[in-house]
Design goal:
Elements lengths: L1 E5 L9 E4 L9 E10 L2 H8 L10 E2 L4 E8 L11 E4 L14 E5 L4 E2 L6 H21 L7 E5 L4 H12 L3 E6 L2 H9 L4 E4 L5 H8 L4 E6 L6 H7 E9 L11 H6 L3 E4 L7 H17 L6 E6 L3 H10 L5 E5 L8
C-alpha cells in the first residue's frame, strides 16, 4: 500500500511517500480503507520530534482518518465491511498513523460516522472537535447562558469551540483578524466578533461581559495571562491549549481572589475510555451540524510533505485535507 512516513524526526522534508506492507489485522482490529485524513498541529510536533513519543520506524504520520471498513478481526462485533467510520488517535502509543491507503485500527479506538456526512468535511473537524469537546464540556463544564471568550475564533479549534458553545446555549465572543475571518465567525454564530487588528480586545470584552466571561479559551500560541485573569468572572475557567514555547505572567493575586481555575491540557494522552466518551459528543455535534468545517486546500496523500510545509508556514485559513482515494458517504 502507499503511505506517507518518516524514518527519522525532522522538518517536513523527512516525509517520504511510497510502498509499505499492508497492516496486520489482529483479533480486535478493523482494517479501514482510508478516504480522507487531515493534518494537525500535533502531527508536526511529533514528526519534528518536538513532542517526543515512542514510534516505530518507519513511522506512518497522521492521527485522524475517515474511511470504510474492509476487514475485521475475529473478536470484532461492532463493525462490518462497508461501514463508514472515523478515528482520531492513531500515531501514538506505538500505533502507526493514518496517512496511508489502509489502516488497522483497534476496535475500541474506532467510531461509526453519522450518516450523510462528506468524508472530507468530517475529517476536517475531527481533531478540532475533539479538542473543543474536551475543553468546553469536560474541563470547563460549560452551561447554557454562560459567557465564553475564544481567542482565535477563526482557527480550526476556535471554530469548533464556537459551534459547540452556541449549541450549548452560551453567549460567545471571539477574536478574528481581518474582514474575511470576522465574517466567517459571524456566520458561525458568534455574538461578538473582535477584530484584534483594529479593536481594543480588553475594552471589547468589558463591553461584552461587564462582570467577566465564565470561560476564557485561548487557542493561540501567545497566551496572555494578565488579559485572561482580567477578563474572567468569579469562578471563571481559563483554558490554554497551544504554544509549546509560550511564556506569560500570571497575576496570582487576582487569579485566586476570583476563585478561578486554569486548565492546560492535550488530547494525546487520553485513555481509550475517555476517547469513547468524547466520541459520543463529537458524533452528536457532527449529526447536528454544529462543527463548521472549512477546507483550506485538498491535496493527494503523495503531497503530505507539502501539507506539513503549508501548516508550519502559517496563514492557512481552514484545514488541510488529504484524500488517499475517492469515495462518498451517504445512502
Amino acid at each position: 500500500m502507499k503511505a506517507a512516513y518518516i524514518e527519522q524526526f525532522g522538518p517536513p522534508d523527512v516525509i517520504r511517500f511510497g510502498d509499505l506492507p499492508m497492516p496486520r489485522v489482529g483479533p480486535r482490529d478493523v482494517l479501514v480503507r482510508v478516504a480522507a485524513v487531515a493534518v494537525d498541529g500535533i502531527d508536526a510536533y511529533i514528526r519534528s520530534g518536538a513532542y517526543p513519543v515512542p514510534v516505530p520506524m518507519p513511522f506512518i504520520i497522521g492521527r485522524d482518518l475517515v474511511g470504510t471498513v474492509v476487514e475485521t478481526g475475529p473478536e470484532v462485533a461492532e463493525f462490518r465491511p462497508g461501514d463508514w467510520v472515523w478515528a482520531n488517535n492513531q500515531g501514538y502509543d506505538g500505533r502507526q498513523g493514518s496517512f496511508s491507503e489502509y489502516c488497522a485500527v483497534e476496535q475500541d479506538l474506532l467510531y461509526p460516522l453519522p450518516e450523510d456526512l462528506d468524508p472530507l468535511l468530517a475529517a476536517a473537524v475531527l481533531h478540532s472537535g475533539l479538542t473543543a469537546v474536551l475543553a468546553l464540556q469536560f474541563k470547563a463544564r460549560l452551561q447554557s447562558k454562560e459567557t465564553v471568550f475564544i481567542n482565535g475564533g477563526a482557527g480550526n479549534v476556535g471554530a469548533a469551540a464556537l459551534g459547540i458553545a452556541k449549541a450549548l446555549g452560551a453567549r460567545v465572543a471571539v477574536t478574528a483578524g481581518g474582514p474575511e475571518k470576522a465574517e466567517w465567525c459571524r456566520k458561525s454564530g458568534a455574538d461578538r466578533v473582535i477584530d484584534y487588528r483594529g479593536e481594543d480586545v480588553r475594552q471589547a470584552l468589558r463591553e461584552f461581559a461587564p462582570g467577566g466571561v465564565d470561560v476564557y479559551l485561548d487557542t493561540t500560541r501567545q497566551f496572555d495571562g494578565d488579559l485572561a485573569v482580567e477578563s474572567i468572572a468569579r469562578r471563571g475557567r481559563i483554558l490554554v491549549i497551544a504554544g509549546l514555547a509560550a511564556r506569560t505572567l500570571l497575576p496570582v493575586g487576582r487569579f485566586y481572589q476570583r476563585n478561578a481555575t486554569l486548565y492546560g491540557f492535550t488530547v494525546t494522552d487520553a485513555t481509550t475510555e475517555e476517547l469513547a466518551t468524547y466520541a459520543i459528543e463529537i458524533n452528536r455535534w457532527l449529526a447536528q451540524g454544529a462543527l463548521p468545517a472549512r477546507i483550506a486546500c485538498r491535496l493527494p496523500l503523495s503531497q503530505a510533505a507539502e501539507a506539513h510545509r503549508l501548516l508550519e508556514a502559517g496563514g492557512v485559513f481552514g484545514k488541510i485535507v488529504l484524500a488517499p482515494g475517492e469515495g462518498t458517504h451517504g445512502n
